[in-house]
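**User:**
Make up any protein.

**Assistant:**
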Amino acid sequence: MTTDSAAQAPQALATPELAPNTVPIVGRSAPFPVRRIYCVGRNYVDHIREMKEGDERDPPFFFQKPADALVTDGAVPYPSFTDDFQYELELVVAMGRTPDADAPHSVLDCVLGYAVGLDMTRRDRQRECLQQGRPWEAGKSFDASAPCGPILPVEVSGHVLSGALTLHVNGAVRQQSVLEKMIWNVPEIIVQLSRQYQLMPGDLIYTGTPAGVGAVGPGDALVGRIDGLPPLEVTITASR
């Protein structure tokens, strides 16, 4: 008895064609291809006090979001698995070269530019993770959780190390602070991250949020501003 060898051959897995995750760069035709998204937890004293968690003297800690959590078209669907969907306005650092943690004086030379970002959070899931001593992925690392505005290159903006950041929700101010209040500033964040990971071109760093975080729902319009950078405008849409 003979068998059809073609019929017996294992089927190749069908893999979808995935478009690269990119962020527009002001003044350039080629966008910024995103490799990884790092986020800094608890980097403003007022936010630590607001959330009633952590020690104000703790060193920075980091978590990641998947690159395909990026949102650049301004539409953020209300996610599943939450009843408490919250915003966190943050300065975003776009890396253009690999920094050397042993040369802290030069790490800013590796920054390509800066942008305005939102670390969207399923706060109820994050609290459960904290209470159970589990990683934060359920609260932080989900689809469409990383809106990001256009990147302004350093040669245009200079290094964005100071200035006001403000978030409006439906026209009302919800978050308002200054970058100078970050516990760990941009060079310090880059040095600390570089001791734990090899930062590469294409990496984004969300640098932490001040107090004033809160819940949003479908139809809400968010506008985030940081002095000197293009604003980030986002609308929360219905669930997918």
